[in-house]
Amino acid sequence: MIPTGQLLSTVPSTRKKAATNKLGCSHSFMGNNVREQNTILSAINYYEDFASQYDSKSAEYHWYSPQIMFGLLFDLIPPEPRVLDVGIGTGLSSVLFKKIGASIVGLDGSSQMLRRCKEKGITSELYRLNIERDVFPPLEKKFDVVISNGVFYFFRNVKHPFLECAHKVRRGGYLSINFESTRDAVYEEYENYSNASIQESPVGTTGVVTYRHNPRLFEIVARAARMKELRRTKHYAYTSPQTGQEVFFTLIVWQKE
Ligand SMILES: C[S@@+](CC[C@H](N)C(=O)[O-])C[C@H]1O[C@@H](n2cnc3c(N)ncnc32)[C@H](O)[C@@H]1O
Fold this sequence. Notes:
The chain is of the alpha/beta class and about 260 residues long. Helices cover about 25% and strands about 25% of the residues. β8 and β9 form a beta hairpin.
């Protein structure tokens, strides 16, 4: 158990290994500052630099995903819920839950995003870790709702982080995750016909790789974690600063049996 509000710095962020496809532009929600062309960055490293602009760019690129996720959960969750925000960033998703009296614990890999989140005073605890590969901290109680908004599309492997998220939900509680779906693929260079489950985005000006996942993957892992799907929607997430294209996420809400 880590003291309230303490930011962990025990888990260093890692560089991703070079991707094979370097054509086109990735369209992760990271602003339009251009790093060394075709250099692969971990998303965490990117957000260290992008943190100061994150909130203002969110408005500019129509990041209403927090409102959409909150809206899908609002009539399900209890008043004053215990919320775990996985990839909390600056807290744009959590701040809505705060308005209904939530107590909020956040996880993220970027110390700069966490610092900005902490300044908002909406969380009781914040932890720094690599969500894709680390075991989550042993938090005292389970949560009424676990959310992860705009995070899973940075992960090549979703099984471990999904199971960690599901493990933190109390029985009868809820989990909501959004991701880019393979079924929404629009770019030819985005398609990888040899692997229908995962598609790796081309590396563009941001230098960060993002992944599309087949919703079937989530269905299989959710079943193993005894998470029952309650709601699913596909929503406009933001307009890509890099390509100008509209990006869509599939959002699912599960309930723990
Ligand atoms: C698009 S932002 C979303 C932030 C917030 N959920 C929101 O709704 O605005 C993605 C966040 O995921 C974090 N992130 C990406 N990959 C991560 C990883 N492997 N481990 C920990 N955090 C990661 C980034 O640091 C960033 O804060």
